[in-house]
Amino acid sequence: MDKVAADRGLAHVTQKAGRGLALVFSVIIVTVIAFFALDEANARFGALAISVVIVALSKPAALDRRLGRFGWVIDLGLIAAFLYSAVWFFQVKAELYTGFYIATPENILAGLAGLAALIALSVRCWGWSLVIMALVFIAFGFAGPQLPGLLEHFGMELSDFMQIAWYSFDGVFGRITGLVADNVLIFLIFGAVLERTGAGESLIQISTALTARIRGGAAHAAIVASAVFGMMSGSVAANIAGTGVFTIPMIKRQGFSANFAAAVETAASSGGQLTPPIMAAAVFVMADLVGMPFAMVILAAALPALFKYIGLFAQVYAEAVRLDIQPLPKEEIPVLTSRDWLNSALVFLPIAALMLAFVSGKSPAMAGLVGVVMAIVTGLVLNPAFRREPQRILQALADGGISAAKIMLAVGVIGVVLAVINETGIAIRFATSIASVGEGNLILALILAMFGALILGMGLPTLPAYLIIAIMIAPAIIKAGVLPLAAHMFVLYFAVYSSIVPPIAYGCYVAAPIAGGNPLRTSFVALRISIVGLLVPYIFVFSPSLLLVAGEFSWTELGLTVLRLLAAVWMLASALGGADPRMGVLGTGQRAIRLLIGAAAMFPMWFLWAPAVAATVLVGLFLPRPVPLGAANSN
After folding, report:
1. Which pLDDT value is given to residue 632?
2. What does DSSP assign to residue 182?
3. Exposed, middle or buried: residue 46 (CB in 10 Å: 0-12, 13-18, 19+)?
């Protein structure tokens, strides 16, 4: 018993050491952005190496009672394996630059050791989904000659695999790893600092007060809070765990079911990953892949995100009407003081400073650094508790360092997948196959791409999910005739929404226990209330003016698209929610008719959407309100 206690005590010591190293990692990231320019290979390998050690220390295997002291052997072995691989990586680095790398048994063994450590520690961070996908692609690379039809290729030897996956600048240490290390990690630190300054509590307080007079106000407040913090989180699950503990009980107290409360939090947190200006840092990778300025991609994401949330608000409102949930009584509505409004600056000033840095031409990394500094300054100035506890700054940097380490491991594993994809050419063949379908039926090609994105994205954090799907699927719908920006935005949407799609629905598995609900039922509710968000990608593919910066922009198309989207939102929300603020609870026939009208409004053909918009106006202006039963009896 004493040995067990001693082991657990030592494990907690290593966790503190891991957090200390994570703090150092954050300081290194900030310092490099502010003052230094590193050799790209050194930066990529160094970021991954320190990430491996941070994860091994902060999530020690010794905490697993089944492993006991053998856990220490595992952790020391993983760290030693990666350090051994580091020695060989830097020995052959000059050969990698010149292209004259030659595989030897020694450096192959070293690469395998590093790759095994990377994959094993990724399981601790993200579970098995990411690793299983990587192992499937590795097996696909070796089994090429034995595969049928479209999947057949020349195959790989072990030396070939190690060269593309480890000893090149296309695999684990490829361009994407460099892009994330250079531009994305600072935004994870930014989100961690914002959370520690008390910005979350201020945002929930203000959102609750502003939405309390609306039916279902608590759920609306949760949507706002989760949207703001979701855009800065690299993980849907992390955002749900962070904000859901506050918002889900608040939604339930107002009268919504446990499954609905969990679904609202999951849908809002998922949507936050698509909300500009940060979009869970996927915006920086997308801008690089599409070849557009970051500001243009941010602008393009604005209207789709707006309508996604309008649809979510409408679904919540319809549910509140159906359940006869009234606004909060006046005496229960929080009264916002001047201090509350001042505290709102904890959220909005850092984001405004970040955006101003973008607009003024700063790099994404420097803009993120400006946001971090502004968040710390506003926290010290506006939050007395933050000022009294300056150690919160160190805690925030440690939190950000751990998040950065975890995302680096995920991106490293994705690098292996991308290396196999590039070597085998499967992405090009897959793209050609979907494009050939798209020549006759673009809708069918988009549906195939949607299911491919949902399947590939299941269980993955936002950025790794987008990376793999952007390489595999975006080229397919571009070949089918879709604008590159619209294609990448399309696959990003479904990479994110894979978090609410059963049977994996990993976001729902985080939210449902908090609410006391059922994860599978929660996922179906989340799908229902996210219907507009799921359909918006189809809208901007066929009406790219919704993206504002598309090459085929038209004010007329934009105006008509907005009009039919508003009609679709109302009809779909009332049909699926089963209630309308004018008509009250709807019957089955009324819901079916509204569902047809909403679906028709989504189609780009004028002979479908024009009558649908007209029918929506007719419903809104001319259908009478139902007469309350008491009033009818009094006559």
Report:
1. 36
2. I
3. middle
- Using alpha carbons only, what angle is made at residue 450 by residues 488 and 143, rounded to the nearest 5 degrees? 95
- Cα 266 → chain centroid: 11
Q: What is the pLDDT of residue 537?
A: 95
Contact present, 219 and 392 (Cβ < 8 Å): no
271 near 305, Cβ under 8 Å? yes
Contact 459, 127 (CB under 8 A): yes
* Per-residue pLDDT tens digits for 40-79: 888 888 999 999 999 999 988 877 777 777 888 898 999 9
For residue 621, with 0-12 CB atoms within 10 Å meaning exposed, 13-18 middle and 19 or more buried, which class applies? exposed
pLDDT in tens, 525-534: 999 999 999 9
Residue 142 tokens, joined: 């070796």
- Report the interhelical angle of 519-529 vs 531-542 (nearest 10°): 40
CA distances from 281 to 44, 170, 400, 610 (A): 18, 21, 14, 38
CB 429 within 8 A of CB 128: no
Residue pair 268/312 in contact by the 8 Å Cβ criterion: yes
Nearest to 346 by CA among 193, 169, 478, 130: 193
The structure tokens 């491991």 sit at 409
Evaluate whether 18 touches 406 at the Cβ level (below 8 Å): no
State pTM to two decimals: 0.82
| Inter-residue contact 500 to 512 (CB < 8 Å) | no
Given the structure tokens 């203000």, which residue do they identify? Answer: 206
Residue with tokens 């070949």: 479
DSSP states along 123-160: HHHH-HHHHHHHHHHHHHHHTGGGS-GGG------HHH
- Pairing, β 584-585 against β 579-580: antiparallel
DSSP SS3 for 66: coil
pLDDT higher than threshold 90 for residue 217: no
Residue 4 is predicted with a pLDDT of 61
Q: CB–CB of 434/448 below 8 Å?
A: yes
> Could you please report the per-residue DSSP string of 318-386?
HHHHHTTPPPPPGGGSPPPPHHHHHHTHHHHHHHHHHHHHHHTT--HHHHHHHHHHHHHHHHHHH-HHH
Q: Enter the DSSP assignment of 548.
A: S
SS3 assignment, position 275: coil
What is 415-481 written as a DSSP string?
Answer: HHHHHHHHHHTHHHHHHHHHHHHHHH-HHHHHHHHHHHHHHHHTT--HHHHHHHHHHHTHHHHHHTT
CA distances from 12 to 4, 19, 78, 124, 474 (A): 12, 11, 19, 16, 44
Q: pLDDT higher for 604 or 238?
A: 604
Quote the CA–CA distance of 428 and 425 in Å, as a whole number: 6
Domain positions in the chain:
2-130, 178-270+318-415, 555-624
Q: Which residues pair with 580 in a beta bridge?
A: 584
Whether the per-residue pLDDT at 628 is higher than 60: the answer is no
Residue 472 has pLDDT above 50, yes or no: yes
Residue spans of beta strands (DSSP E) within 206-321: none
Q: What is the pLDDT of residues 486-530, one digit of tens each?
A: 999 999 999 888 888 877 788 888 899 889 999 889 999 999 999
Q: Which two tokens stand for residue 401?
A: 């360092």
144: which 2 tokens?
A: 């090429």
Residue of 409, 348, 376, 330 lying closest to 189 (CA atoms): 376
List all residues 6 or more positions away from 500 whose beta carbon is below 8 Å from its beta carbon: 263, 266, 267, 270, 507, 508, 523, 526, 527, 530
